[in-house]
Amino acid sequence: MRAQTLILLLLSVWLAAPTAGMTTDEVVARHIAARGGREAWAATGTLKIAGDFTAFSQTHPFKLYRTPDQRYHLDHMLGDKLAIIGWDGETPWWENHWYQEGAQRMTGADLAVLMRDIEYPLTPFFDLETAGHQLALLGEREIDGSATLALKLTRGDGSEETWYLDPETYLEVARDAPGSDFGQPMTRRTYFDAFQKIPGTEAIMPYYVESQWYTRDRVMDVTSVEIGAEVDDALFRMPPPIGMAPVLSMVGAWHVAVEQRQQPQAPWSSSSQASTITAEFGGALLRERSTAGPVTLERTLTFDRFRKHYVLTSITAQSTYLDIMQGTLEAGTITVSNEESGTTRDVFGLQLLGRMTLHDLSDQGFSMEHETSIDGGKTWFTDARRTYTKRATAADR
Amino acid sequence: MRRDPRLYSTTRRCSTTRRCSTTRRCSTTRRFGLALPALALAVLLSSSSARSEDAAGGHDWPQFRGQQRNGISTETDLLARWPEAGPRELWRRTIGEGYSGIAVVGDRFYTLYADGEGDAAREYAAAFDTAKGQELWRTAVGAKLETEFGNGPRATPTVGDDSVYVLGSMGRLAALGRGDGTVRWQLELEETFGSERPHWGFATSPLVDGDLLVVEGGGTEGKSYAGLDKATGAVRWTVGDAKGGPGYNSAIPVMMNGQRRFVYVASGQIRCIDPEGGVVWNHPWPAGETHAVPVFIAPDLIFASGAQGVGAKLLRVHEDGDEVRVEEVWSTDVMKNHFNASVVYDGVIYGFDNATLKAIALDTGAALWAKRGLGKGSLILADGNLLVLSDRGKLLLVEASEKAYVEKGHVQALSGRSWTAPTLSAGHLYLRNHTEMVAYDLARPTG
């Protein structure tokens, strides 16, 4: 009798719960309906979201672009430092001035955060099957004194997170998910508040999103949402490293017309060679490798973002000596020399200074000149000219 | 109304069962003897112990976190609700960078700030008149600290009989004449205790107790904390373990078992020492930076909380003659004070769980209510209300209630990063951030 009473009591409690007997599919369906439904969201197109972002107790404007296929671009400030985060569907990247100037590929715990953030303003519940997520109903949980309906989400990559839904509205209240503090993995709790319709649509989204972890607090306070925004695809792509954008056109397969001479009065001798220039380390380093008869040359070009100058190195199998030149870009011409780097050569008691200019850079070609000085840089003579023109590759043909 | 208040300000939506448990908590509170109002508690402490600050009058706020270093003012007759435009602003003036709190005695207040550029940049201790906020004197206390989260001094001055005790970020500890800022004595912590400046600078606030000045020396080899002759700066004793090292935790005065003691967090311990520097008890505490000072709840409880995933603990100290036992009453992760500490009032702990203002039950540590949107704010308590400053300068009057977050007024007092806790003295509330100070009149009009 007592057992029956207990069963009835438990049954009555269970039936009284708003989610009693609901399956995860039904909870998900209610959640999606609460957010306006799939059709409403499909009609929004690319979103441009703007407002105020607070980090380190400092508030600044932010802009966020999100495409229906989850390409993402967030331009904001973390305290008083710029942070741009992007995802073009292939390369996750950010330019986080707490780490460094210039864009870099996002990895590790930071990437785990981005892969969740790019879902905003949607939730993973919209894309469970395609993404391979698993969902389990955990039941009632309390968040800061309020009852919520908790669900455990296991993503396709095996990572787990807990979502807390309002048991009456089925809108999300909070999420506990893998986070990062300067690359250190730690759980992050994100709260979702201030739900309202996106103007001109039936789609509903949280306009106030706050994340807390460790000693951190981040608040995204949305003030405007624009649907169907037109954006340049380049916005989502990782920008080249600092200083490298002007020289990336040098990447490719080239035919090189070479002119050389030993002395100022000596006649020029002409030859030609093939050269290939590749971009490495996300475009941070250009590497040229060319062969002319027995001479193989390898040259690299990069930009030193700390000292704000280009660094060009070159070595040949003949010289077996690495020449390092450094210099700047002015009026479309990069001029580098070894005067400052100290890799001048000593020949027959003379100190030979080298200087190189790169100019007329375009998609179709560029030119390179090498000069030498034997009087400490007072006078220079040109001893090599290399003119690069696009070489048709097998792929081109 | 764009906000969904039910979601945004989560008060406890509890079942009847939970409400009953709240009632039980209240009865437990009575068992703890914690249902005393703040005024009675302060009177009890004052009558049974040496005052923490010999210069302080009844309405003074002579040091970090007030007379008892508990964030509670004993003042009454304050506005119970604020007009829509907020309380009356008395004055506003610019100030240099720093997070130093404001100490008030009589018609003067004291704080630290940074001024100057490049090699000429210095930190200053300064006195101001309370009526207009005009600077009366300033004295340099070392070079300016520059960090990625805000430059300038962190420590709050402590006002004694005739001296103000100040600590610059670079470790210069000085006694300055209250009248004109003349240096009576000074020493460098690094030289005296072999310490190394911590990343955020030397940031603890000196504690005056009789003729003793208790300071964090920050040294290793038993020189973590020190007792100095406040008249001369002579070191009387040091205490600490071999590892030591500086932290950010100021000592609080406690009266336990009829004995004067000091409690602080350092080197992975909550430590209680006596006025001779003897260790009365230690209790393990997670290593790392614990900035928020502990809170003493008479007669025998210590509440401590830390961020960085630490959480909070309530300790009860059992003393029987030479026998001392520290009992961990509860621990919780629902309250993680970062740099601003909690206040305890009428059986409830109010504080910032990182960036969420919360009330939790003193007897169980259970969450009662939570309010987000105030960032990493600070708070003090007076006349039954919380005076809360958001980390972006919004000042709020909030009822100190276990039931729900009830706001009774607000004003945008400051802009930008506002991490310094409010100071209340003689009905006037003093606030500061990195660029500005402001004073409000919170006194209830008479007549």
Structure description:
The complex is a heterodimer of chains A (397) and B (447). With 397 residues, chain A is mostly beta strands. Chain A folds into 2 domains: 222 residues, Lipoprotein localisation LolA/LolB/LppX (outer membrane lipoprotein receptor (LolB), chain A), CATH 2.50.20; 146 residues, Lipocalin, CATH 2.40.128.20. Helices cover 11% and strands 51% of the residues of chain A. About 2% of the residues of chain A have low confidence. Chain B has a single domain, classed as 7 Propeller (Methylamine Dehydrogenase, Chain H). Chain B has a 5-stranded mixed beta sheet with strand order 1-27-28-29-30, with no helix packed on it. Chain B has a 4-stranded antiparallel beta sheet with strand order 2-33-32-31, with no helix packed on it. In chain B, strands 3-4-5-6 form a 4-stranded antiparallel beta sheet, with no helix packed on it. In chain B, a hairpin with a 3-residue loop joins strand 19 and strand 20. The interface between A and B is medium-sized, with 30 and 34 residues.
Summary, kept brief:
The complex is a heterodimer of chains A (397) and B (447). Chain A is mainly beta. In chain A, 11% of the residues lie in helices and 51% in strands.
Which structural traits does this protein have?
heterodimer; A: 397 residues; mainly beta; outer membrane lipoprotein receptor (LolB), chain A; Lipocalin; 2 domains; 13-stranded antiparallel β-sheet; ten-stranded antiparallel barrel; 5 helices; 51% strand; B: 447 residues; Methylamine Dehydrogenase, Chain H; five-stranded mixed β-sheet; four-stranded antiparallel β-sheet; 4 helices; 8% helix; disordered N terminus
